[in-house]
Design goal:
Layout lengths: L5 E6 L7 H11 L4 E7 L2 H13 L3 E7 L2 E8 L15 E5 L9 H17 L6 E4 L14 H9 L3 E5 H6 L10 E3 L1 H10 L2 E4 L1
Parallel strand pairs: 1-2, 5-6, 5-9, 6-7, 7-8
Antiparallel strand pairs: 2-4, 3-4
Amino acid sequence: MLVFLMLKEIDCRGLTCPQPVINTKKALEEIEEGTVITVVDNLAAKENVTLFAQNAGCEVKVAEKEGNYILTINKRKAFSEKIKPPKPSETLYFITSNQLGEGSPELGQILIKSFLFTLTEQQLAPQTLIFLNSGVYLTTAGSPALEELQVLSDKGTEILSCGTCLDYYKLKEKLEVGRISNMYEINDYLTKTGKVITI
């Protein structure tokens, strides 16, 4: 029996997060088996698409040519995302700042550390923590809250930091706990979680 493998090429140069991920997802959904070649022109897009495809169970090879990244994504079996959205009963904390509340920055940083410590003392650890904007300072080297976040991670809490935010603050190489995420995945979590608490 002959199996015809599809080949699709998509040009995502000049597109910002999360468009390269969305375009790649659509292309993969359009074929049952085969190869999608995605071309991007920045490191963040390369890493976001690579992460998405790998989490979806695909093989990814990356080549660099003339300032562009060429991602060859092989889909050899039924496409199903391995990134499973949280169940409706689970709680997600959306942390958008490295301090809690308005007013004194010093006090705000003390409060956010105290808040995260409180989460470690709960009987049930939260399912997910997502860090956005200056919140990513909390998951990187020098953060006063790394001990608390590591405790939560050890308890099974998934910790995600926005890749675009890490890039903006030049912190990507300093990530200490959890993993890098992208706006497509973050939006997926936010829209499919029963309870979202924004900090």
